[in-house]
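**User:** I keep going back and forth on a fold encoding question. It is easy to fool oneself when nobody else works the same problem. Could you pick a protein and write out its sequence and tokenised fold? Could you put it straight underneath, so I can go through it closely?

**Assistant:**
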Amino acid sequence: MTNNQLIKHSIFLKYGMLMNRRIFIRIFLAVTLVVMVNTAHAQRIKGALIAGFNLSQVDGDEVYGFKKFGFVGGPSAIIPLTSKWSVSLETIFNQKGSHQKKQYSDSSSLLGEKITGAYDLKLNYVEIPVLIHYEDRNTMTVGTGFSWGRLVGVKEWEHGRRTATDLSGPYKRNDIDWLFDLRIRVYQKLKFNLRYSYSIPEIRKREFTNVDGTRTWDRKQYNNYISFRLIYIFNEKLENVKTK
């Protein structure tokens, strides 16, 4: 690749990243505006704010357990279809990834590298989940749906060393997830939300090599996480809910 091609490629990547950020900012502002306007005026659409944390892992990375802690939060609009059914739209910042502590003392492999087993992956997404919900007796809500996410930040460490991973690869910029959602009313307009999510297409394909470099194998990787969130709904009617 010539210097001119490298310059053009760099300009293209920077322009693409800038456009993606602008798109997400516009989506976030649009959803926030819907929440604010309907909180003040609408009788049907409900506005909500979400905040909580994730426990996540990446299936296929040879690291096991929901050990990665991350933040999740953002605005939401809830559109009632009937007295029991509704559709929700969210715009959230969502931190996923994988984590494993140092497993054993430093030892040199045949490849001349220090091997400790330590691993840490931070994946930051801006996501737009869309779900359909069923509410039972103003107490418990069950829902399912899908989420489209855009990777906006990534950092990876292996054996205590930072890798060359960035937004240009090897992790895919888009992540499509299936969601299962359970909400329980805690007090008045405040709900506790438990959500499970799993990537549908893989977020990365990776080749692994054993310690002595004599064997390799390929694995597809998927985001897999559980969210614990609080949801406050602004303009929900509480006629059938005990407030005290």
